[in-house]
Predict the structure.
Amino acid sequence: MFKKFENAVLSGIQSATQRKLILLGTLLAFILSIMMIAPTKMVLAKMLPGKNNDTFTIYIDLPEGSSISQTKEVSDCVVGFVQKESEVLDTEVFLGMGSPLDFAGLIKGSHFKNSENVAEIVLNLTKKHDREEPSYFMVQRMRPLILQSCTAIHKNTSISFVEPPAGPPVMAAIVAEVYGENADGIRALSNRVADVFENTKGLVDVDIMQDYIYDSYEIKVDTTKVSLSGVSIKQLNDILYLAFEGMQIAVKNSDKYNDQIPIHLSLSQESKQFTSKDINAVKYKLASLKLMNSMGMMIPITELVSVVPKKSNPMIMNKNLHQMTNVMAETDMVSQVYPLMEARNIILDTFSDTYKIEKIGLFNLELTDKQSGAIYKLIWDGEMEVTLDTFVELGAAFIAALVLIFLLMVIYYKSYTLSGIILLGSFLSIIGVIVGHWIMDLFTHDTFFLTATSLIGFIALIGISSRNSLLLIDFTKSLMHEKGMHKAEAIAFATSTRAKPIFLTAAAIILASTLLAGDAVFGGLGVSLIFGTIAAVIASLVIVPVLLYNADLEKHFHFHEKKAVSIFEP
Amino acid sequence: MKHTKPYVPTDYAGKLAKTFLRNPLTIVLGIFLLSIGYLALMVMPREENPQMVVSGSTVIVALPGASAAEIQKVIVQPLERKMKEVKGVEHIYGRAMDNVGIITAAFYIGEKKEDSNLKVYDKIMQNLDILPAGAMNPIIKPLDIDIDIPIVSVAFFSKTQDMSTTELYDRVKKIQHHINGLDNVAVTQLKGGHKHQFNIEVDLNKLSAYNLSMGQITQAVQSLAYSVPAIKNTSKENTIVMLGVENAIESSKDIGNIIVAQYMGSPIHLSQVAKIDDSYDIQNFKSATISVKDETGKFTPMKEQVTLTVSKLQGTNAVLIADAVKKELEIYKEFLAQNGISYVITRNDGERANEAVNELVFHLLLSIVIIAILLVLVLGWRESLIVTFTVPAILAITLFIAYLTGQTINRITLFAFLLSLGLLVDAAIIVIENIHRHYHSIESIHETPDELMIKATDEIGPPTNIATLAIIMTMVPMAFVGQMMGQFMKPIPANVPVALIASLFVAYIFTPYLAVRMLKKPDHNEKGDH
């Protein structure tokens, strides 16, 4: 078998047309595989794919100013849906606070939650080995049902589904940071961006990180009246707080309980409630609240203050000293790259009515308000940014690896051509990596993404396939050097002899990687290794011999004095 | 050994093979390597995800009465500028709300936690003077992944409906203290539940009717809630006599009896204008509830619960801690059952880590078996056995070095092993293949097995060394990938090169050692076609 192969290689490398055919074919395969990624999107890129989890969390956010009982109505609605699921083991609802912190919550700021308008629901599922439906499909199935019925209860409610991330956590799949100088402009622009996200296919859980502005009242203190009536402003403020919010006024130590027992004073629930949200109802209630002045006289609070309606003050957010707002969206089982590009195109197309748009950086935009001249910036962040950074850094690592290997080979062989052949041979394994992802995508139920781990696999492959070429060249060299074989024969004999260990080590890598290929996160690495190794074997057994034959081996092996003269069979 | 002069190895490969080929200590070394590897596997802390060094601090400054815009100008912006002075800060986030400003400094991934925390603390303390008048003391909260993220959470709930929430809280708090005492437990916290509290709920209408103010009630209660330490005095016989003053307030009834004012000569008791309860903190709007599936597969109605969360110290074994917590809970099962409380473990990262690790170890073994079968088919069972032995030896060395460098066993470390598995059998395969080839070639018929081993190993030494070096080279730049992903993937560039170097040594030392003892030199008269 190996003899046959040796003859095939021998005749192959000596025929000029076959050599050309092999090289042309390789070039074509290379171009085709690159095409699969960029223009045709046959292979999609994503940082990390979803992971099948035993738990996930549902975040509920009502508009600021909502009460805890309104939040509870929404959480009850969600729990109603959750409890219909057969694979859910238990449900915990945390009203007004975040659930026990996890990786995702740490980045999403779950531990800072402390208001009446938020809730988190934690679901524990059956073990993933005993469950047919992966958690990400479950989320995908439940999301539209829950959103449809539960967000309608109160206006502007947002419900998002948070799964433990497969890799490092990010704030959201897509984050658009809207920078600007004035808060109203930022608000208007970010609302429009959120609208675009809502209408982009593949984006879900759209949320703007800003407070809703709601109606409130301000109590204005008439300072002259306060000083004339012999009470202090502190006294006034304290009483107001004491009456409606309540205050701890004393404690009682106890050996029976674990904590000191506070004594808490407030107005009773029934008597402090306003009859309506109307300003007169507020004034009426304040009128019955009285203060005692230094002379022991009772003064109704309404005598000292006036009540005026006003809008609430929304939170102001800055990042790196610039005022901004985040618009966030999650992806529904798709890579975030493509919806982002789509959303960006819509923004470019439709926002030109009020803004002059300029592209800055790779994807970022600068928008100038045509009327006011105010400048806003739209910067992408979130998983997209992390993906981009990671791919760029891994790409740099890949190039650095190539350079290092090249230098190593130059040191070893003292020849640029030979080192170049090895490098080229290893680079060709990229064909296998891309085609492998495409094949996997055909066979898997959901999209099989080219991920960061695929890139890591590819980088490792460079080393592996350069080993193949190296063993081949080394053996050719010793054959020519010690046995005085002719170039073509030496290459053919070396190729066929080395084919066995090359196949063996390749088989070992492929077999070891098949178990990797099944994993959610490291599937990309496994697939890269399996198909990349196949490509690498072909490259080192077919293309490298051709390239070697084309090179002036005698010169590169530094046989100056000892040229091969005789040909004899080994 | 007897007639020709011995083969002189030129490469490290041959030299190593020669040194260890007839050395009685080689076998001891092999056993030693395997046992330190096993030891490392047992004692190394296990986690699901690798440890990431993420540092950051949050500074919270309250200025009561200020609007968001005021806070932005007088607190957030000046502090943001100060944060900018700190080296290593990647992003600064500022949030200005009514009454309070929050500034978060996020450091570059990989910046040392302790240093970063200290830097922020230092900067704030040096600049306390820039805070506006009336601002409260800044609260500085460092982010600590290990301590902040609990590895175990347990939800306690009452089986019957009539238990008050404070009672549940009190019972769980007792258990919390014991769990916190377990080894390597860092923080335990309770979420949900309500604390004990006396509530005085004043009826506004009665207040007006008696012409009273809230201030009067406050003063009256405060004056009676005052307590003093016991009084010590001596008697004439110089013995000490203690006088304890009983607290005026012992129960809600005592509070109700407080006289708040005199009205037309008769005293007004607090109970006349207010409802006094010995209950829970009603002003706390937070609550936690749980619903579990019962035996019939139906969900119980939502019940009030208290969740106990447990987090571990950095670098400790999540599996052991989770097991210890579980065991401790078993002890209290009886006590809880008597009080009508049951519990569910709602998070167990230890178990999750153990499952992930065991699954991957199983995969690792499976891969080794598959490769061994492949080698049996191609090279023969003796050769296959030799290569298969080298794998655990290499993994053992790698594991032990990982243990020495303070790593943990997590998903990524094991993936690094799986990745290197395909690579690390290579050296051994190449050596054994060359030995096999020489053994079966007619040219070497007169050479002794020892000579042959050394020669075969020496021959493939240089290309194998260079090739392995090439693979290591590809891993080196990966160590410099920054960001979260770089941190997350760090075990790969950290462990694969170690495994590869180990694979070289093991291949050069143990493959010839085992081959010379296990392989049989074929009878060349039969002329097998190899």
In short: Chain B is about 50% helix and 20% strand. Chain B touches chain A through 136 residues (CB under 8 Å). Residues 526-530 of chain B have pLDDT under 50 and may be disordered. The first helix of chain B runs from residue 12 to 21.
